[in-house]
Design brief:
This protein is mainly beta. It has three helices and twelve strands; from the N terminus they run H-E-E-E-E-E-H-E-H-E-E-E-E-E-E. It has a seven-stranded antiparallel β-sheet with strand order 3-2-6-9-10-5-4. Strand 11 and strand 12 form a beta hairpin.
Amino acid sequence: MTALHDPGTIRLASPDLLRATFRRHAAGVAVITARGAAGPVGFTATSVTSVSADPPMISFGIGTGASSWPAVAGTDHVGVHILGEHQSELAATFARSGADRFGAPTAWREGPAGVPVLDGVQAWLVCRITARVPAGDHRIVLAEVVLGDAGGDGRPLLYHQGRFNGLRD
C-alpha cells in the first residue's frame, strides 16, 4: 500500500504544505541586489534559475510585500550573487527583516548600471530585467545577463530544512 492511501499523510494544498515540501528541497543560495531610491537593496533568494543560454537569461522570484520589491519593480538592472558555504552569515543578513544589509561587515561596491556588487562571492552577474510576471503574491523576474564574473573559489552554500549548509563529502 502506498502513502497515497494513508489518510494521515495526505494534506490539502496550502501555503504550509508548500513550505513543508520545499524545506526538503535543497537549493543554492543567492543574493539579489538593486539600486533603490534611498540606497542599495538586496535579499536572499533560493529561487534563482537558469532560463536560457542564448541569450543568457535567469529568473528569480520575489514577494510583492518584500522590502526590496519597490526597488526591483522600478529598476532596469539587478545583481545576482551566488554564495559560497563560508557566507551563511551574509545570507542570513540579507534574509533578515530590518537588517542593515549593506553596512559592515558586508563588503560591496557599486558596479555597472549602479548595481551593488558583493565582494567575495562565488560568482556574480549584472542582469537587465526583461519581464516581471505576476505569480500569486510574488513576481517572477526574467533578466538577461549583461556581464559578470564566475571566478570565485570554494563550494556552494545550500538552504535545506530551514538552515544554510555546505555540501557534505
